[in-house]
């Protein structure tokens, strides 16, 4: 997730390798079905959501070795679409000159809440990078139309959305459509090497993990005169749960996913604490500025999860996984036991996983291979983070099955700029905040 102002966060990867993450699992399936490449083998791409992440993902798709063309764009806001289009057409872009691969005439630029359907119809591969609250309906439409998908994490913001993505994931598998989710640590060389050694038994049985996403926080887009409430929340989407899911879901999902991946399991319950201690003003919507969660797995192992957005505090974005025979220090890319190093990844061999996830996806599509089915893990990683948010908001123990099957939806009844969002400010401009001990999700 990039700020409105940032156009360079992906370039910082080499400097901040331990902060970048995500990914998917490659599956050994092959198929000739589900491919819509045109006669000249051009892979046509549409981007739905033209903000910072959408611009970055489109750039990475266009930088792959395959014959890729961006043919359609969609966004709720015309200015975001135009900024993305201008960036991709910049011949002096330091990430690479992809202008020749951008072929989006005016009639293929779609603005508004429903434009995604038209953009999807024009492509073979769809990049879904809107705020995550829209991900379930956009994913559903892409698979209905028979398209391959790259979609950013998280894949939903509520249990109902997660259920929808899980259902659509099964349809994607039936249609043999490749789906990649931007949990890019799965594509990072160091994490892949660490994972291999964990699976080979180097650290024994995993008993616990510490995972962190603690830093200063992100951008704020203050309210402007004349904005409807819906437009304000869309422009300031990070601070509203129906759009973002809180930072435990939008960002910290990366670290949470690592434990699930290495463990090969998902938690069965969670309990924790959190609140708004520093970031309390009306510009910050309804989300918390800190969360601490204990995630419990069926075998008794525990993941201790921290995320914090408070300036001037200790910053760490990392994971440490503890086994009966050793410890994985993911940021350091090292496995140790009793103070001695068992394995150390050569960081000169590190890659940019943001690029690699696209390289591997488009290579598979060009070869007419079905290799990637990451929507299920993406949905369950998202559900893990949502369960953590429910635990901190309520102060109660949250059960996985009960939460997943709760039917809880945060979405509005209608998507339009004159519609009311599901949460509204009071007379002082402040939004209702979850209160542990008072907020209830189940009777």
> What is the spatial order of strands in the main beta sheet?
15-14-13-12-8-11-10-9-17
Helix and strand composition category: alpha/beta
Order of helices and strands: EEHEHEHEHEHEHEHHHEEEEEEEHEHEH
Q: How far is the N terminus from the C terminus?
A: 35 Å
Topology-level CATH name of the largest domain: Rossmann fold
Beta-strand segment tally: 17
Low-pLDDT ranges: 1-39
User: What is the average of the pLDDT values?
Assistant: 92
Please give the largest β-sheet: 9 strands, mixed
Question: What is the CATH-assigned architecture of the largest domain?
Answer: 3-Layer(aba) Sandwich
Indicate the percent of residues in helices. 25-40%
How many discrete domains?
A: 2
User: What gross morphology would you assign?
Assistant: globular
**Proportion of residues in extended strands:** 15-25%
What's the Cα radius of gyration? 21 Å
Number of helices: 12
The CATH class of the largest domain, by name, is Alpha Beta
CATH superfamily of the largest domain: NAD(P)-binding Rossmann-like Domain
